[in-house]
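Supplementary Methods, section 5.1.

A reviewer requested that the exact input to the structure prediction be made available. We therefore reproduce it here, unchanged from the version used in the analyses.
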Amino acid sequence: MRLRGKACVTVCLVLAAAVGCTNGDGDATRTDPPTSAPARTERPSPSAPTSKPPHPVSLPGLIAREHRGSDLRLGAVRTRTDAYTQYAVTYEANGLTISGLMNVPEGKGPFPALVLAHGYIDPAVYTTGRGLAREQDLLARSGYVVLHTDYRNHAGSDDDPDNDVNLRLGYTEDVIAAVKALRASGRPEIDGDRIGLLGRSMGGGVVYNTLVVAPGLVDAAVVYAPVSSRPEENIDQFQRPERDPIVAEIEAEHGTPEDNPAFWRDVSPITYVDRVTEPLLIQHGTADDTCPLKWSEQTTAAFEAAGKDVRLVKQPGEGHTFYARWRTSMDTTMDFFDRHLR
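The structure derived from this sequence is encoded token-by-token as follows.
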């Protein structure tokens, strides 16, 4: 636990790789420098597998890597409201420049910050900030700096031509780097010692990966309608029915789950759930037929079995897009973040 001023407070493939077509809102559907930031000591991580050098395309491979995030730059003003100003931004992630947007609340900071990880949208049609517009607005109005990452190969971000066949683990690198870039920025409006994550659909999988790869990086995380924590389930749900040619490329490179089970275990965050140190809130609709509720139930059970701080909130009758009960769910989310980040 950390002392926060007045209170003491207590978190489509390879998830980031779960893909499908989209409804235009970032959901995997069938239709588819010197820093002045406060010093921070990250919690020690449980040991990563050490029997042999990890495969570079794996979560142990990401665990073993030194992740760099820096050079957060605010560009043009996109929007001004009575509550916040929205900027186009870029930052550096392990040698790539990643684009995105950032909402900065009006008033005197520093403010706690949130990194948002959007769901799957075809990079060919994706535009900066697309996918979590409702959340960007509401969270900024609630006093959070909000950094929405575009991911590599999206919008103005640099290209990574191997990202798809490498199970899109690069998205996890981009989210880790976004947190590090916020913390290293030295900007007075950002409290680099109070940062959380929010991911939706595929972005929920990216959040799972981030919690496994970089325990202690953030203070809390929320996922909405997340994909499965078992990559093969995501392939079978989204890509194989669409006859996506990338499936054959991936299996040619890495083998099938039957032929190479060790590889597939190592790209599943559920294998390394013991590493997670942050409280996690999962919100899932009971009528979600895109990402079945059972996926979140299975993931929650694995977290609980490992003794982790996890809560699953089932929203009655809500589908994948969270329309009817979105505000109710966001009240729960903001209560959770307020408890752990303020």
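Residues 2-341 form a domain with the Rossmann fold fold (CATH 3.40.50.1820). These observations are discussed further in the main text.
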